[in-house]
């Protein structure tokens, strides 16, 4: 397998072809695997850094690559398509998109105590023997 990084133009060409494929047939496994390898190298490290800093969450680079694939597939006809094609940093646009999707998913999946719950915990702690 070719391990060189895709240029921005190669990425744009691949993305543009996704729309053409979506009309007829899915990209073949070789094309998908090549993109996943690129995403693991070009997208995953920055997404992992951001999610760890923002959420304290550790993530898997293979999973991030798959989310990147799904994001591209979704955007083949989406509103961000044009920006992905004309941006001077299409990989950066994809990193932002994937980070946003994973962050939103994390927040929807992980329940954090709200202000009311924190007050109840503090009150319970105060009422407990040896509490404040």
What does the model show?
Helix 2 (about 30-40) packs across helix 4, helix 3 packs across helix 4 (about 60-75) and helix 4 (about 60-75) packs across helix 6 (about 90-110). This protein has about 130 residues and is mainly α. It has seven helices and no strands. The mean pLDDT is about 85. The N and C termini lie far apart (about 65 Å).
How are the SSEs ordered, and which strands pair?
Elements: H1 8-24, H2 29-42, H3 44-55, H4 61-75, H5 81-86, H6 90-109, H7 115-127
Helix pairs in contact: 2-4, 3-4, 3-6, 4-6
Question: What's this entry about, in short?
Answer:
The protein has helices at residues 8-24, 29-42, 44-55, 61-75, 81-86, 90-109, 115-127. It is an all-alpha fold and 132 residues long. The mean pLDDT is 86.
Q: Keyphrases for this structure?
A:
about 130 residues, mainly alpha, elongated, about 0% strand
Helix % is over 70%
Number of strands: 0
Instruction: Calculate the terminal CA-CA distance, rounded to whole Å.
Output: 63 Å
Contiguous helical run count = 7
What is the CA-based Rg, rounded?
A: 20 Å
The oligomeric state is single chain
Largest sheet: none
**What is the global morphology?**
elongated
Order of helices and strands: HHHHHHH
Helix and strand composition category = mainly alpha
Overall pLDDT: 86
Percent strand equals under 5%
Report the uncertain regions. Answer: none
């Amino acid at each position: 397998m070719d391990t060189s990084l895709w240029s921005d133009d190669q990425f744009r060409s691949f993305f543009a072809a996704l729309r053409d494929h979506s009309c007829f047939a899915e990209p073949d496994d070789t094309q998908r695997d090549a993109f996943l390898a690129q995403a693991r190298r070009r997208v995953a490290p920055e997404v992992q850094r951001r999610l760890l800093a923002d959420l304290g969450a550790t993530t898997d680079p293979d999973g991030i690559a798959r989310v990147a694939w799904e994001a591209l597939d979704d955007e083949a006809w989406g509103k961000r398509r044009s920006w992905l094609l004309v941006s001077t940093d299409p990989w950066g646009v994809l990193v932002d998109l994937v980070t946003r999707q994973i962050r939103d998913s994390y927040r929807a999946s992980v329940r954090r105590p709200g202000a009311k719950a924190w007050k109840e915990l503090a009150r319970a702690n105060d009422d407990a023997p040896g509490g404040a």
